[in-house]
């Protein structure tokens, strides 16, 4: 993988190993089956929704820029807890995609490490690889199900460290290039992308930019919804994005491509 493309394209293309692809595909099948269960059952696997950020979450807000979706977060530090609940309610579909996270961690960790090592070397970020790899317990697999409608995901940049795209059952994913043009992202069954989020923009002292992206509905996804998965890769960071100052969705797409390092840093507060 060539991480030098990050400053030109905004993302890096990585080869998608066939075994990982197969694990992801199987996990998505059981996630789709889980989505069919009654809401009461699904909510048993919630970490309290906006209180603790793991397990099942429903987002069905109304109003401008609200997305209609359900999602599920699995990270290694929550697998045991989630497995325990899934066993208790005897829901095999949940058990399958929760346990898949362990195998997907194995399958993705080499890719993540190569990325972190490359970024550390090319952009001279000492300690970056170690910070990423020692945070493996907090890497989060997000299973997504958009219910449909006109727009599936509004333009945004992710807040964590960086993002590995893992699955989509329909097209519609776009990224905002540094020239201000939206383009379809180059994701197939044999290759995928990693792109920086807000955390890596901060860590790289504004040299790498959190990539803005969105999901357009296609005729088919508007009708029957869309399933996808991403992995959010976190690393030790002493600062967090300060929502209280300005919500990310209130910025225009790509606002962070041009701003100064000082301006960007002012958006964060100590953890
Ligand atoms: Fe995103």
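-> sequence recovered:
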């Amino acid at each position: 993988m060539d991480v030098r493309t990050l400053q030109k394209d905004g993302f890096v293309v990585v080869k998608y190993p066939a075994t990982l692809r197969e694990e992801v595909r199987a996990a998505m099948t059981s996630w789709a089956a889980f989505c069919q269960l009654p809401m009461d059952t699904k909510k048993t696997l919630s970490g309290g929704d906006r209180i603790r950020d793991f397990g099942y979450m429903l987002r069905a807000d109304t109003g401008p820029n609200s997305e209609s979706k359900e999602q599920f977060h699995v990270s290694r530090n929550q697998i045991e807890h989630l497995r325990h609940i899934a066993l208790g309610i005897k829901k095999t579909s949940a058990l399958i995609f929760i346990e898949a996270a362990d195998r997907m961690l194995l399958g993705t960790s080499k890719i993540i490490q190569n990325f972190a090592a490359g970024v550390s070397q090319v952009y001279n970020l000492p300690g970056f690889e170690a910070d990423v790899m020692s945070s493996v317990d907090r890497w989060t697999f997000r299973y997504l199900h958009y219910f449909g409608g006109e727009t599936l995901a509004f333009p945004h940049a992710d807040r964590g460290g960086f993002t590995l795209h893992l699955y989509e059952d329909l097209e519609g994913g776009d990224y905002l290039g540094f020239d201000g043009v939206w383009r379809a992202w180059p994701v197939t069954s044999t290759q995928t992308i990693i792109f920086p989020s807000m955390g890596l923009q901060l860590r790289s002292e504004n040299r790498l930019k959190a990539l803005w992206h969105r999901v357009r509905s296609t005729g088919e996804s508007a009708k029957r919804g869309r399933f996808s998965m991403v992995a959010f890769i976190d690393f030790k960071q002493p600062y967090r994005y300060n929502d209280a100052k300005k919500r990310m969705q209130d910025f225009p797409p790509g606002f962070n491509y041009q701003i100064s390092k000082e301006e960007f840093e002012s958006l964060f507060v100590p953890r």
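The chain has one domain: 3-270.
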